[in-house]
């Protein structure tokens, strides 16, 4: 029988939970800023500028909106992944690699709290 721990202790889970809640709060604030810049980006006040400059400005505005949309999508996924990690904490399955079944090292979870794969499993995917 292996002497490896099957799961993290309740104290460890509470530590991870605090880290994740902090990251969720920051990520949701970042998402709010991205959405606000997307909404407020409707008019840059270029109506009185030369037509050539306006064309460049409109192209940059379109690119900026596309980038904001991509950023918002990534940020929404990040928040969703963090919230799923909280569910795993409640289920006491947090930190267990979904491929190997081994505990993901604490250092990795503190760096990437929504991780579901160990480095070993991640490398097997390549």
UniProtKB/TrEMBL annotation:
<keyword id="KW-0862">Zinc</keyword>
<dbReference type="InterPro" id="IPR000962">
    <property type="entry name" value="Znf_DskA_TraR"/>
</dbReference>
<dbReference type="GO" id="GO:0008270">
    <property type="term" value="F:zinc ion binding"/>
</dbReference>
<feature type="zinc finger region" description="dksA C4-type">
    <location>
        <begin position="97"/>
        <end position="121"/>
    </location>
</feature>
<feature type="domain" description="Zinc finger DksA/TraR C4-type">
    <location>
        <begin position="93"/>
        <end position="122"/>
    </location>
</feature>
<dbReference type="Pfam" id="PF01258">
    <property type="entry name" value="zf-dskA_traR"/>
</dbReference>
<keyword id="KW-0479">Metal-binding</keyword>
<protein>
    <submittedName>
        <fullName>Molecular chaperone DnaK</fullName>
    </submittedName>
</protein>
<keyword id="KW-0863">Zinc-finger</keyword>
């Amino acid at each position: 029988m292996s002497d490896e721990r099957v799961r993290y202790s309740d104290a460890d889970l509470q530590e991870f939970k605090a880290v994740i809640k902090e990251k969720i709060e920051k990520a949701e604030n970042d998402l709010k800023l991205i959405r606000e810049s997307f909404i407020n980006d409707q008019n840059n006040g270029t109506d009185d500028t030369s037509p050539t400059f306006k064309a460049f400005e409109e192209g940059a505005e379109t690119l900026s909106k596309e980038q904001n949309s991509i950023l918002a999508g990534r940020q929404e996924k990040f928040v969703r992944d963090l919230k799923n990690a909280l569910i795993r904490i409640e289920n006491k399955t947090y930190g267990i690699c979904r491929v190997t079944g081994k505990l993901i090292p604490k250092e990795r979870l503190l760096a990437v709290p929504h991780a579901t794969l160990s480095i070993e499993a991640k490398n097997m995917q390549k």
